[in-house]
Structure formats: structure tokens, C-alpha cells
Amino acid sequence: MPFTGFGLDATLLRAIRELGFTRPTPIQSQAIPPAMQGKDVLACAMTGSGKTAAFLLPILQHLRLKPRGVTRALVLAPTRELAAQIHEHLEELAVHTPVTGAPVFGGVGMEPQEHAFRSGVDIIIATPGRLLDHFTRPYAKLERLEYLVIDEADRMLDMGFLPDIRKVLRHIPTKRQTLFFSATLPPEIVRLAGELLRHPVTLNLERKAAPAIGITQAVYPVARELKSALIVELVKQGVVRNAIVFTRTKHRANRLSEFLTRHGLTNAKIHGNRSQNQRTEALAGFKSGKVKLLVATDIVARGIDVEALGHVVNFDVPNSPDDYIHRVGRTARAETTGDAFTFVAPDEETELAAIERAVGKRLPRVTLPGFDYNRKPTEKLEVPLSERLAAHRAQRAVARSRSAGKAANAPAAGRPGPSGAPRPAPSAPPPAPKPQPSSGRHRMHRRGR
């Protein structure tokens, strides 16, 4: 069904066209109709699937003709970055309507947020902690709330927000429409959904969590002390052009950022110890292309939308398969393509094995000469760059082929591209630098709304 088939108002369809959206993603096709009918929705939707527009468009459709000055919708998000991003998408979709919204999260002053409560913006997008701070003040009343959205519910659970969510529920009406989105459904989330939802329409509950189809996954066996040098080498070879590089801790993020700076690579870092202004500036620089490498902890593993992100690099192997899926989901947003590289030291093979069991296959290995387990940190690299680059290109071609799974056994020419047109069959293995998504891909699928 095209967007015109949902019964959306002309003002919303105009914004959709101006954003370059050409057709809904699967989760939008499934979630928008029942949400428009006023039904509760429980959706198990992977990151990058376009769920933000899936819950914003029905709400905007219903609120556009409502009297102003009353907050009628609340969206709960686990991180400041995700709340800010949802607000940005709201402004883009509501540009031709009178509907207003405001983000409410920590790290910034409360005064503008207080004004949003007092003036009655239509939609508040909030993190649970800061919202509860406001609920201690007399002006923060949401007694006329009609819509509650919980986004990235499993991430909220991971971050310990479940008690805060229960406290938030005490401040809002029980009679409301609830839209509940989660990438996974652990038992605690299932119980919470049972408490919140009334006869919900359930979507994609049988889907096994897995990386997006367009992600080429590869593992780089590397000595732990050589991981930083490997990043530098991949950038210098042109294999990695722009990437989010995930580390396990804030201290490792700081050390890696300093190493990259010493080797002349522009980068920014984002983690829990950075102020909100620093985090916002880092993301803005990365999204604009001024910064090519964003070193981050899992605080940005979900919900951060970067157009045409070519690579995700797991500098440290994630602790869980779910974390891996959400990290690599920063690339190949909604049917585009991208690469996900994981650096694996010998003592991280156990975590890698768990990831491979979860995704159902052994991830292809790519060994860059001079960076394998056996090379000593002080050993001089004797292999010429031209030979290393040629060997690396050949291995990556094999990795691409294997990562396609069963699809690799079928003729590539028959597989449709994002526009529905067949892809031409490649005549030779692709070169190491992966081309960025073409300008012909519509923004809906580049941006993963």
C-alpha cells in the first residue's frame, strides 16, 4: 500500500513527498493502519526499520485538527540522542500542520522544557528520568494525554528504566492508545506490554532478531594490542571511509580517540561521560561529514540515524548478540547496504561464537597481513602496502560472497534493487572501498524513518 492508501491528510502527504519518501517500509505498512484505527500496537521491529514514522504519522493525523494548548501525546525514548532524533523527525513530518512538539531530556536546562509543559505542546518526547524530574513540579500535568508511545522498550530495560516507566504510568491517564515498539521481547518486556496494552495488534513477533540483509559482515582476527593500528590501516587503505567505531567502555573510547588523533585521523567521541552539548556536537560533525570516525560506546547503538553510513566497526566484540545486532544496524538502514567489521582478539572468541549462533552462520574471516594473532607488537611489518591491499581486497570479495548466505548461490542479476529494478550481475569481485548508496535511493530507505 502506498502512503496515499493510508488515508493521511494532504498536509502529511506533502511533507512525505518533500522528504523524498516514495513507499512505506514493511513496519509502516503493518503498523500505520491499526494505529490510525485507534488500536493498541505491539511491534517487534528491528532498528532502522522506519518505526519512527510508523508511530508519528497516525498521531499527527489525529492531532492536526485538535485544539492547541494541550499535551495529548507522550513518546518515551531510552536516550537523549534518540529523543532528539524523534523530535527532529516530528518537525519534518508536521511542517505543514499546526502540531507542535518538544524534547525533554537531561543534560540541558529545565526552563525551556518547563515552558513546553506550561504552553501545552501537542507531543512531548522524553527520557524517563528527566520526565520524572518534571513530574515533581506542579506545572507538569498530562491528565489529558491520549497517546503513549514506548520506543526501544528493550533498550530501556537494559538501561534500568523499567521502574521509572512504571512511575511515569502513574502520572498519565489509563484510558489512552498505546504503541509499543521493541527490537526484542525478553520476558520482562512481554510482562510490561501485557500491563500497558489492551487487545493489541501484534506485529513481527515471530521474527528472529538478525542483522539487516544489506549488511556485509566480516571478522578481523587481530591481536588486542594491534586493534588501534588496524583501524588506522583500514582508513589509510580506503577500506573504511566513514564509520561508527564501538568500544566496550568509556575509557577505551577515550584512548582510541586519542590514538586516532595522533595518527592524523579526524574523529569525535560520544559516551556517558560527555556533556549533552559535546554529544550533540559530535553527532552533528559526524552526520555532516566533517568527522569521518565516531568513537562510541553502546549509548548510540540504537536509534541514531546517519545517512549513507558505510561502516560499523566493532572495536571490541559486544557482550551479547543483541548488542551486536543493534550496533551493526547503524549501517544498511532500511534496505541500503553497508559493512560491519568486528575485531576479534583471542580472548573474545567466546563472545563471537555466541553471536554466530544467534545469527545462524559462521561469519567470514578477513586477515590483514601483519595484523593477525601471531604478530608481535614490536615486529616490523615487511609486507608492502600494495600486496597487503591486494590480498585484503580478495579476502573481502570472498567475505561478501559468503555473507550473502543462500542468496550467494543464485544469480545476482535476478535480485531486485531498492527501486524494484533488477541488479546487474557483477563481472568481477568488488574493490575494497564500498561505494556509497546512490542518490537514486529514496530518503525513506536511506534514513530508516
Description:
This protein has 16 helices and 13 strands. It is of the alpha/beta class. It has two domains: 3-203, Rossmann fold (3-Layer(aba) Sandwich), CATH 3.40.50.300; 215-402 and 428-433, P-loop containing nucleotide triphosphate hydrolases (Rossmann fold). The chain has a seven-stranded parallel sheet with strand order 3-4-2-5-6-1-7, with helices on both faces. Strands 8-13-12-9-11-10 form a six-stranded parallel sheet, sandwiched between helices. α3 (51-63) crosses α4 (80-93) and α6 (128-135) runs parallel beside α8 (162-169). The chain starts with 9 loop residues before the first helix and ends with a helix. 45% of the residues are buried.
Tally of separate domains:
2
Number of strands: 13
Order of helices and strands: HHEHEHEHEHEHHEHEEHEHEHEEHEHHH
The termini sit apart by 17 Å
- Structural category is alpha/beta
Mean pLDDT: 80
Q: What is CATH's topology name of the largest domain?
A: Rossmann fold
The value of Rg in angstroms is: 23 Å
Largest sheet strand order: 3-4-2-5-6-1-7
Share of residues in strands? 5-15%
Multimer state: single chain
What labels would you give this structure?
449 residues, alpha/beta, Rossmann fold, 2 domains, 7-stranded parallel β-sheet, 6-stranded parallel β-sheet, 16 helices, 37% helix, disordered C terminus
